[in-house]
Design a protein that fits this description.
Layout: H1 14-20, H2 57-81, H3 85-117
Helix pairs in contact: 1-3, 2-3
Length: 127
């Protein structure tokens, strides 16, 4: 049985919330206040985003995953076509920056949404 706080009707799915930065409560695009920084609260439903603790987990995993993908692709390009160095710089630097920022936004939004939908909190604290 769902409570009023966590009714699922009208709420976005985790994928939509992560991709578009949707508020987990009202589905408005109010989750981010910058490239990857959360807004203090939702301007539509007043949900306080500061009470959620997403932490640095997404950044660490994205660094490893995106770094491995970029290095693998750069090595493949080098071995297959042997382009000049400037091609690598022009191709991989913007691609890496874009992948990190977009991935970080999606990962942080997904974790916040999961925290909200499961009513997660710190262990040992009573609600």
């Amino acid at each position: 049985m769902t409570t009023d706080k966590h009714q699922t009707k009208g709420q976005p799915g985790i994928a939509a919330a992560a991709l578009f930065g949707l508020c987990p409560k009202c589905a408005e695009r109010t989750l981010f206040d910058g490239i990857a920084a959360f807004a203090p609260k939702c301007t539509s439903c007043e949900l306080d985003y500061s009470k959620f603790n997403v932490g640095d987990g997404p950044a660490r995993f994205l660094t490893i995953i995106i770094g491995a993908l970029i290095v693998g692709l750069a090595l493949w390009l080098e071995v297959s076509f042997m382009p000049p160095f400037w091609v690598h710089a022009v191709l991989w630097v913007p691609l890496t920056v874009a992948a990190v920022f977009l991935g970080l936004r999606a990962a942080k939004a997904a974790l916040l949404y999961a925290e909200y939908s499961r009513d997660a909190g710190e262990a040992g604290l009573k609600k």
